[in-house]
Amino acid sequence: MAKNPTNARLGTYVSRSTTGETYKAYVPAPLPPVPPIDMDRLYKSADQAMKALGGVDALAKMLPDISLFLYMYVCKEALVSSQIEGTQSSLSDLLLFESDETPGVPVDDVEEVSNYIAALNHGLERMKEGFPLSVRLIREMHKILLRGGRGSNKAPGEFRRSQNWIGGIRPSKARFVPPPPEMVDDLMSDLEKFAHNEELKLPALVKAALVHVQFETIHPFLDGNGRLGRLLITLLLCADGVLAQPILYLSLHFKEHRQLYYDLLQDVRIKGDWERWCEFFLDGVTETATQAANDAKKIIDLLEQDRLRISQIGKASKSALKIHDYLLKKPYLSITKAAVALDISVPSTTSTVTKLVEIGLLREITGNSRNRIFAYTAYLDILAVGTEPLAHSN
């Protein structure tokens, strides 16, 4: 296994055979890159990204309940990350599924997205308990990510024991062949050590950019690598103290520039072009954080306006404010479930919901006379930007 003599940043290729056919698998060079990352080229982008993160953090703190904002952003990230892999569910599908209101929802697709939310929350909770972001935690999260649904037969929580590849019908025709399975354990162990190496003089955002590429190149699992690799970005930044709250999700940036995203990952492997990838990553942090800050401001303004409108509807305003709080958690509402959750009688809930429909705050979406579902459409419209399923997947 000879090193490339001209560029130490490049990995090596190892030959393997299967069914009488030879192919070459790629083994990445260890991190950090050699020669080192040219930080002079990245300082401006890194500074802009950190300022954007500070802006969204400040605005998020102004929300009446940041946990609701975070929950909805986790939902959005889970959805968009899964859409990059070809899932066709929408934000409305996911929120209806999460609320146990699932008429016509593509359950297999939405279950995958719901598992993503559970995996991310598991990682965040474990880290709050003091557990390090580690290979063990990554495997725990993967087990949750692939529980049930289409990935349940792809060894959830276990590193692969067979060769995988990207593009093409077999390894010899593939666009990219990750390292052989017997190398995965050592490569992931090295990646964990890099992630926790406090002697490195690299900004946390740049380190997260490097870890993401290395994880995707190792491709340690049979399925779910893309989703888990994007999920790890936020967890790593939380672990390094860059994010006080998990408010940064880059999947929307990757989705909007999907082909460039894939091309830049490949350029790191075949050209060693880490700087161009890092610029793209940092620009994505700036773009995504700025969008999140804008969304937070829109949500703050919407809640203030709607609560003012509710206060003007008379004696029903007290129960209407309770229902409004409920809508922030469940923007798709059924009268029976809301009545139980809020300890308000069904007739009173029905009357109040009718008032909210009359003032344009809620809209009934089923057209049914029974088992009706009402949507908080203005709130959903803010959240749904960029979550339309892709028309085609690679």
Question: Can you put this structure into words, describing what you see?
Answer:
- The longest helix has 38 residues.
- The protein has two domains: 257 residues, Fido-like domain (Fic-like fold, Orthogonal Bundle), CATH 1.10.3290; 85 residues, Winged helix-like DNA-binding domain superfamily/Winged helix DNA-binding domain (Arc Repressor Mutant, subunit A).
- Helix 6 packs antiparallel against helix 7, helix 7 crosses helix 11 and helix 11 packs antiparallel against helix 15.
- The strands form two sheets. Strands 3-5-4 form a three-stranded antiparallel sheet.
- The protein is mainly alpha-helical and 394 residues long.
Features:
Arc Repressor Mutant, subunit A; two-stranded antiparallel ribbon; 2 domains; 15 helices; 394 residues; three-stranded antiparallel beta sheet
Task: Outline the fold blueprint.
Elements: E1 12-18, E2 21-27, H1 39-60, H2 66-84, H3 91-98, H4 107-128, H5 135-145, H6 184-195, H7 204-218, H8 225-239, H9 251-256, H10 258-271, H11 274-311, H12 317-329, E3 332-333, H13 335-342, H14 346-358, E4 363-364, E5 374-375, H15 377-383
Antiparallel strand pairs: 1-2, 3-5, 4-5
